[in-house]
Specification:
Helix content: under 10%
Shape: rod-shaped
Oligomer: single chain
Number of strands: 37
Largest sheet: 6 strands, antiparallel
């Protein structure tokens, strides 16, 4: 502000003109204003001079004053840093849990927590949780027989059930091995059997036994385990028999007698003779000359068979004379010779029987006999023992013993 002289000169006129003026000049001020610093956190923004700013620096804005002069406003923007920290990973096993930022976590993932710094900006902490798997492995079932044992998880087991063994995996987590043990039964059974003397009994194992005692057989059941069968075998008491006979009083009289006396076994006894009547007492009567067999059965069902001969006179005779039969050698080993003398013509047969009354050989049958004649018979086919030869004619029967030796 002041007082100034001003001279104006007009150019281009015919004559120069100079005007001198006296007056005042006022100079209006301009302003530079520094506002307080603006402070934000990294990542935020602030409106400065009509524009959102997020980068640190000094920003200027020009505004007109009331005098129409520029007024400059300077604003310094301070950007405080924020921090992001990654903590070491946490590792747990599946099924476990861990506290991360005051919260119990058990699921794999990255978790964040925000803390204010001294500048009031957020500091982000990131923690990654790794969940390592655990394994549950079902092994094939084990099967044993009762009384056996099997090694499961380092321990011998013999009781049926499910057993668990825990191993550590490479990640340090448990690996559970599950094994189910089945115990199959073994079977024990008992058999009681009784046999008669001379008989045999087949045990469950397939062998035959004739002697009383207790026998054990181990068989394999359908499940592969042993089945033990105990057999108590009893042999009934043996019977013995004494046989006696009374010959016919005369040829054809039919008054012979055969009897048997039994001891041992288990009374009472039953009897069955092989005569034409099938008599059932210990004495058979009214018998003709011949070989008779009796079957004795005791209360245990054991059977004893015996034979006895009922005869007449040992020679052959007729009403008008007599005859005879001789043989040699006795004992015989190869051949025997029969010498037969008959006073009259006859038809007859000569047969050999064992002591059980079984016909084992026929020397001749239904042959016409007359006078004296000789017959040879080969005994090679007979076993060593005592035999009975029996000569039967039309009116006589003669039975005698013959011994065969080897």
């Amino acid at each position: 502000v002041g007082v100034f002289d001003v001279t104006l000169t007009a150019l281009g006129c015919l004559t120069d003109s100079t005007i001198t003026m006296a007056g005042y000049i006022i100079v209006n001020p301009i302003y530079t204003i520094t506002t307080p610093d603006e402070t934000i956190c990294d990542g935020d923004s602030v409106l400065i001079g009509g524009i959102y700013r997020k980068t640190a620096g000094t920003y200027y804005d020009t505004l007109p004053t009331i005098n129409s002069c520029d007024s400059v406003i300077a604003t310094t923007l301070v950007v405080n840093p924020t921090y992001s920290f990654s903590t070491p990973d946490d590792t747990i096993c599946d099924g476990d849990s861990v506290i991360i930022f005051s919260t119990v976590r058990k699921t794999a993932g990255t978790y964040y927590d925000t803390l204010p710094t001294i500048n009031s900006c957020d500091s982000v902490i990131a923690t990654t949780l790794i969940v390592n798997p655990t394994y549950s492995i079902n092994t094939p079932n084990d099967t044993i027989c009762d009384g056996d044992s099997v090694l499961i998880g380092g321990v011998y087991r013999k009781t049926a059930g499910t057993y668990y063994d825990t191993l550590v995996t490479t990640s340090g987590c448990d690996s559970v091995i599950v094994t189910t043990l089945t115990v199959d039964s073994v079977y024990s059974s008992a058999i009681t059997a009784a046999i008669c003397p001379g008989d045999s009994f087949q045990l469950p194992g397939g062998t035959w036994q004739t002697i009383a005692g207790t026998y054990y057989d181990s068989l394999v059941a359908t499940n592969g385990c042993d089945s033990v069968v105990t057999t108590d075998l009893t042999v009934h008491p043996a019977m013995t028999a004494a046989l006696d006979s009374t010959n016919e009083s005369s040829p054809g009289a039919g008054d012979g007698i055969a009897s048997v006396s039994v001891s041992g076994g288990t009374p009472p006894y039953t009897y069955l003779w092989n005569d034409s009547l099938g008599q059932t007492t210990d004495t058979a009567t009214g018998l003709s000359a011949g070989i008779y067999t009796v079957e004795v059965t005791d209360s245990n069902g054991c059977i004893l068979i015996g034979s006895i001969t009922v005869g007449v006179q040992t020679g052959i005779s007729s009403g008008t004379g007599s005859g005879s039969i001789d043989f040699y050698p006795n004992p015989a080993s190869t051949k025997v010779t029969f010498v037969i003398k008959l006073p009259t013509d006859n038809y007859g047969s000569l047969k050999l029987y064992n002591l059980q009354g079984v016909n084992v050989a026929t020397v001749f049958e239904n042959k016409q006999l007359s006078g004296k004649f000789t017959v040879q018979f080969d005994v090679d086919g007979l076993a060593e023992g005592v035999y009975l030869y029996r000569l039967v004619t039309n009116d006589h029967v003669v039975t005698e013993k013959m011994v065969v030796v080897k």
